[in-house]
Amino acid sequence: MSILSTIRAPADLSLAQRCVAGERAAQRELFERERRRVHAALYRILGSNVNMDDLVQEAFLEIFRSLKNFRGEASLGTWVDRCTVRVAYAYLTRKRPRAAQLELVPEIPSDDPSAEARVLAREAARRLYAELDRIEPVHRLAFTLHAIEGRPLEEVARLMEATVVATKARVWRARQALEKRAKRDPVLAQFLAGETAGQGGGEEQ
Length: 205
Fold this sequence. Notes:
Elements: H1 3-20, H2 24-46, H3 52-66, H4 76-94, H5 113-132, H6 137-148, H7 153-159, H8 164-182, H9 186-197
Helix pairs in contact: 1-2, 2-3, 2-4, 3-4, 5-9, 6-8, 7-8, 8-9
């Protein structure tokens, strides 16, 4: 355990206990500290979503409800991640959302290659999340946590309360579904090729 982790663990436990006790200042501190983390995780899992603000609030309700069980064995950030994943999974399973709606991209000058690259990246992301909407929620969740958020398989397994073998299989199945669609979609294929270059092999066990 690092020195930073050793210092943070008691502070995390104290903050959690103060939140459980109903201390408003502690609850605000936790919310302000972890708000960006929660929003970023939900955004990467779900894509741009009209319900994002509500989902962030729902995640914090889950966090505050569950804090009475926090014992400090892991960091408070890990606890927040686990709650956020539960909320994202519940959202995916209770109602299959429509394809992610990314904000409109304004027209750009034809001589601005960097802006053109951003538009292409935005379009690739739109197509990716449209395909993710068609994938089983548990496979999508594993894939986005591993391939998009860049979390190790072991961490994804802990967040999803699954085995590493099951998690690896879920990532593999999602990737297979995306690659099948990418055979007919050059933009998505290029995006996936870039993402796969930084990942290890993902054969199903």
